[in-house]
Here is the input.
Amino acid sequence: MQVTGAQALVRSLESLGVDVVFGLPGGAILPAYDPLRSSTIQHILVRHEQGAGHAAEGYAWATGRVGVCIVTSGPGATNLVTALADAYMDSVPMVAITGQVSTAMIGTDAFQESDTTGITAPVTKHNELVTSPERIPAAIAEAFHIATTGRPGPVLVDLPKDVLQAEFTWSWPPVLDLPGYRIPGEPDQEMIAEAARMLHRASRPVLYVGGGVIKSGSHEALMELAEITQAPVTTTLMARGAFPDTHPLALGMPGMHGTFAAVAALQEADLVVALGARFDDRVTGRLADFASKAKVVHADIDPAEIGKNRSPDVAIVGDLAATLPRLTEAVRDLVADAGPTDTAAWVEQTAGWKRSYPLRYTQASDGPLKPQHVVERLSALTGGDAIIVAGVGQHQMHVAQHFAFTKPRSWINSGGLGTMGFAVPAAMGAQVGRPNDLVVAIDGDGCFQMTAQELATCALLGLPVKFLIFNNGFLGMVRQWQELFYEERYSEVHLGTEIPDYVKLAEAYGCVGLRCEQASDVDAVLEKALAVTDVPTVVDFRTHDAEGVFPMVPAGHANDDIVLGPEFTAAEQQAAARKEVIA
Amino acid sequence: MTAHTLSVLVENKPGVLAHVAGLFSRRAFNISSLSVGPTADPRVSRMTIVVDGASTPVDQVHKQLEKLIRVLKVVELEQDAAVERELALIKVTVRPDLRADLLDVAAAFSATVVDLSADTLVLEAVASPGKLDTLLARLEQHGTCELVRTGLIAIGRGSETITDDMPGHQPMAAVAG
Here is the structure.
């Protein structure tokens, strides 16, 4: 049967099981919006294309499925670039459909023309400018295949207007023609056996768990590996929730704002087993001094991550869903033959570090409201049973540190790119993907104002997302760096707490607006917010502007230089530098 | 400089060169030379890329190239196990009293005269990059006034070919769900 390119696009998306897309129409993509009207696919009309991109990301993080967004050419596509770059850095499966000017106009500087594939090539796993309607079904199917297999990532398909309008004979399924696309095969059994021997032998092992564990659905396999090896586990910013923080082997987050126990354990380990992690600079600190006493096993699906930053002693390329159970099995065999691992002293040492140097803050009952207190109360009131979304900055670190994550896909943030403005649209996407779960966005006042327009989208959809603004009137993380590294010369970081009035702003957008200024009100305000079920709720938490995020490893320093912060005495800091257990 | 020569087979599709070039700039890899041309299979083009191993992690270049969807195969050609050639066109000023020496030099390097004017001539030379550099140094004495080089191309010695065991050389017949 004859269809237009636009109809083929919509049919392809339907055939691939897409039930929701986030988008905003415009001239070049107009033909696609006509068949979309009568499609089974729900289209969510955002207020800014960046919102469509981050919403697709939030949907993908929360559900594990592909997030889809659709925008027009030129500014529509360029507005999407930040979200694509974000998804690329954090390996989020996403398909972006962009309109393009008609093929005859390409290269003429036509109205709303941009070189979308050129602009997005460095920030997508793949992209394609489609030049014939017959190509559309295969291009879309290939985009989904590439986005979801191997290391996931964003794929963009650029569709010129005339290609959307032209007719051709529909046929499905298409044949995928990707001769150069390599998905890693089975992990090498020899390497797994060697890694198992190292784990069995190690006296100070640490499992360094990255986002790949969540993406591969391997959290249960991770638990089995941790329990058989009795190796302490640290979960990176991308992996919060992959291993329950309540588990005795859990060390919390490593890196620049990691827990002392996690940072010290990696520095003192004799074996680091990296699972779906990439030795990011925010984890390693000065690379040459990272885990310098440790041998390294690196298991990852992307062969290019092996040896990129740290040369491993054993590399296992492959899907963790295959690697982890086999590694556990191999360790189990060794345990059966030669007895259990001997990590008891090591586990006790890491537990001692946890006791001696916990995450510490002081909430005085009549003092300024501390952001950590809000996070801890939220964690307690929800029992950890929520999808938590954050932007980027101090609030993000406070949540990553203080919320007790117990389940995978309960934590969504912008890790690699560090995109301020991520939280509001990503939370919207998460709520769309998991309508029956509680979604709470925690955002800074700086971040919130970058994408707050999507409150309108959320309100019209009746999404009961909770937006908790940690309003300290500053670009807080930048302020903290100026305090510590620029002798308190604060330059262009003061936003003010009064403008906008977030309660009125919420009400203007059809949301419930609440304010909380003191610690004694936190529970009541949170309970009030959690009770709203039909519209979004925005809470303006007036948090302490001088509160920093600690511990902290100054940028470019070795992780041994970890600073515990003002809550610890000089004597405690000195003991920590010697990695002594004092409690 | 430690030159590493990568032979890269790519799909002959629009945008492939941009993806490869973009990868090099994005990852701060330095390219010493890049040449592209068709192969016996019209669907496939071949790039020869020379990178400086001292300033660029060659293993990362190799792996990152393999991640590009339109890249079919990447092979590093070891210098000893490959024939490496580059073509240069060199415009040289000619002083009548030195013409004979110039032609002697050209002959020694098997370079041929492909254009001649009153006071210049154009030499065509095909050689390994090192030999070409030697020729150019020698010609400097005469006054080289313009130079164009193709960039290196290379092929492995012996009976093996780059398409041996090439994964997915035939279009993959996977079907979407």
Remarks:
- The helical segments of chain B are 16-26, 58-67, 99-108, 129-140.
- The mean pLDDT of chain B is 90.
